[in-house]
Design a protein that fits this description.
Number of helices: 8
Order of helices and strands: EEEHEHEHEHEEEEHHHEH
Largest sheet: 9 strands, mixed
Strand content: 15-25%
Bound molecules: flavin-adenine dinucleotide
Strand order of the largest sheet: 9-8-7-10-6-1-4-5-11
Number of strands: 11
Shape: globular
Helix content: 25-40%
């Protein structure tokens, strides 16, 4: 037995480090000014897949759609125990909203044999939590969102506990299934030193080309392509070439990708600054504090 798991991971700017210095005047964020990290809840999704593999056996493929730099989180996944990694990168993905993103990811997942697809609940940059549910819809499979605990896996079905805000719910579903996993589901493991040694030289073809360009600044395009082809061949022999797919490889309908596949229109960006409108000074005595607490309860600020 064993389960084939596909984990969707996203490289995101570390939004915890947003300060005034990284904001543009129009309210957008200078992404390049922030460190790029593994989306936190995607680490929980990967950890759940690793636990499933440890308990029942199986195979884990991680997929990310993004810029060439997203190769870093694919390597990180291999260090933690993933078996296979795929980068989807293509300039025609630019301007994709969540609908186009989930369409492109669904085309990629359909190329792979799977029992369980795992996503993080939400990405810390886009913050919509839409991609997991949209992906399940496009794959035509059941989804269990907000998963906090895996209760049972019995070959044909899965039972999971989901957090519904004011309580928990246990849900049983037939496989294949898509789970969106919350940050409370587990404690993601750290990279294993042995696997780091093994995969630290794993690269995507585009990273190979970029590296060769940097090492041979005077070489022409044809020479770089030839050198890159040779290096990729060597990496394949050592099982260190990370797969890279473009929109042709996933057989995506281009009208569903990028701007043409994205119905979302951004009309306005508003900076919300939370600031106290008024302040009130109270005397440092029991009565004044008690009056203040009553006022806050009456205004329904505290319960
Ligand atoms: P969520 O829905 O919160 O993510 C949930 C989970 O889905 C994640 O935890 C992860 O498991 C999975 N997931 C999400 N995104 C990916 C991914 N890329 N690869 C693998 N798994 C993933 N973004 C750009 O980078 N470039 C653009 O040019 C661009 N243009 C945009 C234009 C518009 C009009 C809009 C509305 C958005 C644009 N975006 C662009 C943002 C992009 O659409 C979102 O980042 C993306 O759809 C994911 O949405 P989210 O961040 O809300 O993820």
């Amino acid at each position: 037995m064993g389960y084939k798991c596909v984990v969707l991971i996203k490289q995101v700017p570390d939004t915890k480090r947003i300060t005034g210095d990284v904001m543009n005047d129009d309210g957008t964020v200078k992404r390049s000014a922030l460190p790029a990290i593994f989306n936190p809840e995607d680490l929980n999704a990967l950890e759940l897949a690793l636990q499933i593999k440890e308990q029942f056996g199986g195979h884990i493929t991680v997929i990310t759609m993004g810029l060439p730099a997203a190769g870093a989180i694919l390597r990180d996944s291999l260090y933690r125990g993933a078996d296979d990694a795929i980068l989807i990168t293509d300039t025609r993905c630019a301007a994709s909203d969540t609908l186009a993103t989930s369409y492109i990811l669904s085309c990629a997942v359909k190329k792979i044999d799977y029992d369980i697809v795992l996503c993080g609940r939400q990405a810390i940059d886009g913050d919509t939590a839409q991609v997991g549910p949209q992906l399940a819809e496009k794959l035509g499979i059941t989804q269990i969102t907000y998963v906090e605990e895996l209760i049972e896996l019995d070959g044909k079905s899965i039972t999971a506990q989901r957090n519904i805000g004011n309580g928990w719910q246990q849900v049983k579903a037939e496989l294949p299934v898509l789970l969106t996993v919350t940050g409370d589901a587990n404690e993601p493991r750290v990279a294993a030193a042995k696997k780091m040694m093994k995969y630290k030289k794993a690269l995507t073809p585009i990273e190979v080309e970029e590296k060769i360009k940097a090492e041979n600044p005077d070489a022409d395009v044809a020479d770089i392509k030839e050198l890159a082809k040779h290096k990729c061949g060597k990496l394949v022999e050592k099982n260190l070439l990370i797969k890279q797919w473009d929109l042709d490889a996933v057989e995506a309908d281009l009208s569903w990708c990028g701007q043409s596949g994205s119905p979302t229109k951004v009309h306005r960006i508003q900076s919300v600054v939370l600031a106290a409108k008024e302040s009130k000074k109270i005397e440092p005595n029991q009565k004044a504090i008690s009056d203040m607490i009553h006022e806050l309860i009456e205004d329904k600020i505290i319960a």
